[in-house]
Amino acid sequence: MPPQTIQETLTDHIPTFVLNVNAPIQPKPMGTWMMVYSDDVWYWQGFNLTNLRNAYGHIFDLPCPTMSHPIRSLRPFPTWAVSDAHPRFVIQTLDELKKHGIETLHHLLRCPLQHAIAKLKECLVCSKSDVLCDYMAPHTEVDWLWSVFYATDETNLVVSCSRLSNTFTSEDLRLKKSNAIYTLRQLATYAVIGKTRYGFILTDKEVVIVRFHVVSRELEEYGVGWVAIPWKETGPCTLTAPLALFSLALMSLNDDHRHIVVGDQTLPLDAWVREKPSTREGKVRFYHHLSGQYVDELPEGVHFYWERKKKRTRCVADHDTRSHFDGDFRGHGRMEVIRAE
Fold first, then answer.
1. Cα gap 198→107, rounded to integer Å
2. Using CA atoms, how far apart are residues 135 and 184, in angstroms rounded to an integer?
3. Is 221:215 a contact under the CB 8 Å cutoff?
4. Do 340 and 56 contact (CB within 8 A), yes or no?
5. pTM, whole model, 2 decimals?
């Protein structure tokens, strides 16, 4: 039997977390957190399996021979309950969720990321050689910064905070409740300190993928795009929580697209660049701005691409890019956008 691909590995044998506690413990908001306002929070529509496969399909389809049953090789914990079909953790405290959730994710992602980095280096500037995981971010001088994926040179890639589902769900985020906004402010603080735009909120029910951009540098205000992936989502053609986090790590491994920038510089996930041929007879090619993947034709469903300009770019749309780019980022575009036919 051939080895599983990375996508098959990260969509199979997904762990579940069962909450076994009654009394919710609400986190206390802190006045020192970075500011996120509800008007700057929206659903990240572009973060979906189609766009991710268009960008990273050549990596998703790589064989991952040593990870056919990654969950079963974890050492048993006191809170670990096993069934052949659905391995699960029984969670009683937030610390248990942090420890077991992050450790499980790192175990799932470690081998796929090793294979992915070598492939990424063929296409783009990727200075990292491995991805590590710990509960504290390196070189931030903040001892309460939990659960971060980082590189061997201690560059933070993806930061995280955790919540039990009896205090926070993505429905709270959809309704922009105060507890959800406080959670985003906490994660925004971690992201700013960690110098990465990518993060996630870990709960026992779901993983909420988050990407930040700058709204105001003077006031330290940040905007947020988010999408929730339930742990119960499994299957080969499904965007599962591990596959989503794997994709987030891949994005952050691109040295040119890791730092938090203003909204109109935070490009949509389906943004492709048209490379002009060096001669008249040369063929036009396209490459993805995050993965560096080259294609001769734009993938089906791609909404637009653009050309880089040596001089100041010409904005082709003078309306708000929220409608132009399907909610993927905010602000007014400063690049020449060319609609794909």
1. 20
2. 18
3. yes
4. no
5. 0.84
Give me the amino acid identity at 338: I
Cβ partners under 8 Å of residue 237, min gap 6: 11, 49
Measured between alpha carbons, how far is 281 from 270 in angstroms, rounded to an integer?
Answer: 28
What local confidence, expressed as pLDDT, does residue 106 receive?
A: 84
Read off the pLDDT of residues 1-29 as tens digits, 9 standing for 90 and up.
Answer: 678 999 999 998 788 899 988 766 666 66
- Which of 230, 224, 184, 240 is closest to 203 using CA atoms? 230
Residue 216's contacts (CB-CB under 8 Å, 6 or more residues apart) are: none
Report which DSSP code applies to 336: E
* Distances in whole angstroms, Cα of residue 176 to Cα of each of 34, 35, 251, 321: 17, 14, 26, 22
- What is the secondary structure of 81-111 as a DSSP string? E--SS--EEEE-SHHHHHHHHHHHHHHHHHH
Compute the residue count for the chain.
Answer: 341
Band the pLDDT of 155: cuts 50, 70, 90: confident
Query: Three-state DSSP class for 3?
Result: coil
Whose CA is closest to 97, among 169, 149, 148, 162? 162
- Residue spans of alpha helices (H) in 136-289: 170-174, 178-194, 241-252
Which residues on neighbouring strands pair with residue 287, listed in sequence order?
273, 294
